[in-house]
Structures are given as structure tokens and as C-alpha cells.
Design goal:
The protein is of the alpha/beta class. The protein has two domains: about 80 residues, no CATH class; about 190 residues, 3-Layer(aba) Sandwich (Rossmann fold). The protein has six helices and 18 strands. The chain has a seven-stranded mixed beta sheet with strand order 1-9-8-7-12-13-14, with helices on both faces. Strands 2-18-16-4-5 form a five-stranded mixed beta sheet. A four-stranded antiparallel beta sheet has the order 6-15-3-17. Strand 4 and strand 5 form a beta hairpin. The longest helix is centred in the first third of the chain and has 15 residues. The radius of gyration is 20 Å and the shape is globular. The two termini are about 35 Å apart. The N terminus is likely disordered.
Length: about 325
Amino acid sequence: MGNPQPIPRRRFLGALAAGCGALPALAQDDVIRVDVDLVNVLCSVRDKRGGLIGNLEKDDFQILEDGKDQPIRHFARETDLPLTIGMLIDVSKSQEFLIEEERRAGALFFEKVLRPKDVAFLISFGAEAELLQDHTGSAKLLRNALGELRLSAAMPPIAQGPIPQRGPVKGTILYDAVYLAADEKLKGEVGRKVLILITDGMDYGSRYKIQDAVHAAHRSDAIIYSIYYVDQRAYGFGASDGSLKRLSEETGGRVFHADRRHTLDSIFKEIQDEMRSQYSIGFASGNPARDGGFRKLDIRAKNKELRVQARKGYFAVKG
């Protein structure tokens, strides 16, 4: 295959570029679409203390589709299945003093997590979103790209008139970055796909809404892990992790809170462990209709003391 090459820095605006026209129409329900008979779902299982359970078998699970039991046709523990990882790092003004730590911890994460056949890419987002490194299996290239992280803060436009006044701020396009990463960088990939967000969860100026970002993640079959990383000096009132909870929980991921006791290094280790301790469960729906309708999924462990973490459902696309 040869040595991977770094890609030139470019603005990662995709469909948001000037002259792109109207935003594409999106379905209202935030679930993945499938067009094959076998529905595959990745999940993690934890005990009451939050510990990962990695030794379960097919008969330990139950799948309900729209409340009806579904026989499991495929089952595997996915500890070695190749990964495609997209890391999205917030470089807006509120994160200015956290970027150096994000750079250091991110480089260490890629060095530890990437195995043969795994690939990753890196996007920064603030006032704009930039693809700093495209898909590569090289931790060195990703480390070099992390070195290119820089503040992306936009001043609000100044309105004309006798007394200049500032207009609305477009400062952190979180939802746009998630949407475009899922739609442009993950949708065409196969295998397990993960987005890791490092951000304070605030969005200012995105054209896409949070439901659009969730939907794009589902369409690409991506799990979102969010790292809620806040510089309290930037907020007199404190930020909120509500948007990150929705992005992660709807897609089968979860939210981590970074602080002095729970460092980025320890969080990355938890994410790494979880990605290597997943189950792949496949079933053929008992409902043969391919009417584009929403099918609600509920994946359970038969042991009531265990909690399954998985996405919420899918669309049965017309054949």
C-alpha cells in the first residue's frame, strides 16, 4: 500500500459551501436506515458498577423489534474487528486554553489504539470545520495533524450605520461538524465506525440542527463518544452536556466528563476498552415489509443486573 501521505489542510464545509443550495431533507426519526435483510447492531454491556462485561454468549441476549422477540442469527465478540475512528476537536474561543492538552492526549490515544487495518481521521471545528488528516493508519501522521490544531474563533460581523453594532456570532459549528464527518467521511466505510467528540457541547452558528447530526450518525452507522471538556474560565454560568448526551445515547455511545480527577488520558483508555469489548448481534426481522417505516429496537441482557448500551432502532427501507 505504500506509506500514507498527509493531506493538505482544507476547510471541511462539504454541503455548506457557498452556493450549495438548500439543505437536504431529513427524516424526522433519528435512527439508522438499512437495506439488507440482516440487521446488525453493535452493543456494549456493563454491570451495576459500570464495569464492562465481555464474556457473554448469544443466549444471554434478547432482541425486541417493536416489542416482538427476534431470533438472533449472527453473534460475535468484536474485540479485533477493524475500526474507523473520527476525532472531532473543538478549537473555538472557549477551548483556547485546552487545546494543548487535547493535542497531547489525542496523540497518545492514536498511538495506543490503532492496530493493523484500523484507520482514523482528524477534524477541528470552531467558527469553521477543517479536515486536518484524512483516513490513515499512521499514528505519526495523526500526531502531526494534531500539531496543526489552532484557535478558530470568528468575530461577529459589524453592521453598518452611524453607530457600529455587532451581529450574531458564528463561533462553534458542532452540529455541522458531526453531520459532515458522518455523512462525508464515514457513510461509505464498512465495519465499526466511531466518532469521538472533545468539546464543551455548545453550538453557535450551525446550519444543521442536532437532530440532523444524530440522523447523519445513524445513516453512517456510527457510534458517538462525547468528552465534555469545559474551561470554567470561559463560562460565568457553566456549560451544559445535554446536547452531547443526545448525540451519544441515541447512537449507542456515552458521555465522559473530563476534569482533574478524570483526565483525557483515562477517558481515552475507557473508550479504547469499550471499543474492544463490543458485541455484534444480527437478526432477520420478522416483519418482511420494506416500507421505510421506523422499527424500534430494544436489546436486553437476560441478566437483569446488566445494562446494554446500543442504538435505538432503524428504518426498513423500501426494496
